[in-house]
Fold:
Amino acid sequence: SVQLAESGGGLVRPGGSLRLSCAASGFTFSAYAMQWVRQAPGKGLEWISTISRSGVITDYADSVKGRFTISRDNTKNTLYLQLNSLKTDDTAMYYCQISGARGQGTQVTVSS
Structure:
């Protein structure tokens, strides 16, 4: 079965950076495009970014474009999200996703 385990979240000041990781297992990681999504308190799920199977093609929501970078290491079955220039509006639970399946998430809190 698909298993996804996000990590790397934490408390950071505005303007700071974090690197999130998602360890994947239970499926052929390199055969699937992957996504990051997030859910802020009291709000719905928001798509953030998608990366192709090879990692060559990426796409971002306007809200994070130019600040976040998605990447993957198919040799390690791991997905990454580099978060730079963080804003208070980026506070949310972050999830990696494939075909609607998500892990437990990792909390990112941006606060001064």
Remarks:
- The longest strand covers residues 18-25.
- The radius of gyration is 13 Å.
- The chain has a mean pLDDT of 97.
- The CA atoms of residues 42 and 108 lie 15 Å apart.
